């Protein structure tokens, strides 16, 4: 069975989603809502599902938050590359497809995750390009490629540097459709508009926790606003 890992930080005010331009308590509620919606949506994926959490002492708190069917394991120390390397090194020996996402894309279609698992049937690496120049999903199967070292994380060059690290022809790479993370005030506005547009078009967004935060903090949707 495939492995789906969701990387998440405990939603403590002042330590999560600090770039959203929201008051610290609102940003923490948004982070928790994103995580809850991501886990609820991910529960529809046929996989061994794992929340890869930080900090390392937050295991009991996460155990009380995650829905049934999810295990919890701590993230490794180091930068994001070190943490991803440790996660994949732990699970790739099963021989199954292993997919990692974050909790920054609450509207990410479940179909994209399923597609990634399917593509790993004949690919070594699957990437979901993010609109900010990074990626919202990475999936691997088989050998661990050298794609997590020498990367300038949290910059617009992440995807380009990752592709450069996969220059050897032996790596079979597949791509998903682009999607967006929610990290900045502009992303927050995009999320609000996207959810509203889906509602207007008669499409169920499937992010009830996120919608609740958006409704409760309407004035926080303006880029740069810190009102709550």
Supply the key terms.
Spore Coat Polysaccharide Biosynthesis Protein SpsA, Chain A; 7 helices; disordered C terminus; 228 residues; 7 strands; alpha/beta
Q: What's the short version?
A:
The protein is of the alpha/beta class and 228 residues long. The chain has 7 helices and 7 strands, in the order E-H-E-H-E-H-E-H-E-E-H-E-H-H.
Detailed description of the structure:
With 228 residues, the chain is of the alpha/beta class. The chain is built from seven helices and seven strands, in the order βαβαβαβαββαβαα. Strand 2, helix 2 and strand 3 form a beta-alpha-beta unit. The protein has a seven-stranded mixed β-sheet, sandwiched between helices. It is globular, with a radius of gyration of 17 Å. The protein starts with a strand and ends in a 12-residue tail after the last helix. The longest helix has 19 residues. Helix 1 runs antiparallel to helix 7. The chain has a single domain, classed as Spore Coat Polysaccharide Biosynthesis Protein SpsA, Chain A, CATH 3.90.550.10.
Note the topology:
Blueprint: E1 3-9, H1 24-42, E2 48-54, H2 59-63, E3 70-74, H3 80-91, E4 98-102, H4 110-119, E5 125-129, E6 135-140, H5 158-165, E7 173-175, H6 185-200, H7 208-216
Helix pairs in contact: 1-7
Specify the structural class: alpha/beta
> Could you tell me the radius of gyration in angstroms?
17 Å
* Average pLDDT, all residues: 95
Q: Total domains, how many?
A: 1
Query: CATH superfamily name?
Result: Spore Coat Polysaccharide Biosynthesis Protein SpsA, Chain A
- Reported by name, the CATH topology is Spore Coat Polysaccharide Biosynthesis Protein SpsA, Chain A
Largest sheet: 7 strands, mixed
The helix-strand sequence is EHEHEHEHEEHEHH
Number of helices: 7
Helix content: 25-40%
- Largest beta sheet: what is the strand line-up? 3-2-1-4-6-5-7
């Amino acid at each position: 069975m495939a492995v789906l890992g969701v990387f998440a930080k405990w939603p403590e005010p002042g330590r999560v989603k600090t770039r959203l331009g929201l008051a610290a308590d609102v940003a923490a509620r948004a982070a928790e809502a994103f995580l809850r919606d991501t886990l609820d949506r991910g529960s529809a994926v046929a996989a061994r599902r794992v929340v890869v959490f930080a900090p390392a002492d937050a295991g009991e708190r996460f155990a009380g938050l995650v829905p049934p069917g999810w295990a919890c394991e701590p993230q490794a120390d180091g930068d994001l590359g070190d943490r991803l390397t440790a996660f994949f090194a732990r699970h790739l020996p099963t021989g199954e497809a292993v997919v990692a996402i974050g909790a920054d894309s609450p509207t990410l279609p479940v179909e994209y995750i399923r597609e990634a698992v399917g593509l790993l049937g004949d690919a070594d690496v699957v990437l979901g390009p993010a609109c900010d120049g990074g990626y919202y999903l990475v999936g691997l199967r088989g050998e661990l490629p050298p794609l997590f070292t020498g990367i300038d994380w949290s910059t617009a060059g992440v995807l380009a540097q990752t592709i450069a690290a996969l220059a050897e022809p032996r790596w079979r790479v597949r791509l998903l459709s682009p999607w967006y993370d929610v990290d900045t005030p502009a992303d927050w506005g995009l999320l609000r508009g996207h959810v509203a547009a889906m509602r207007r078009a008669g499409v169920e967004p499937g992010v009830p926790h996120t919608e609740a935060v958006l409704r409760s903090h309407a004035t926080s949707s303006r880029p740069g606003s810190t009102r709550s």
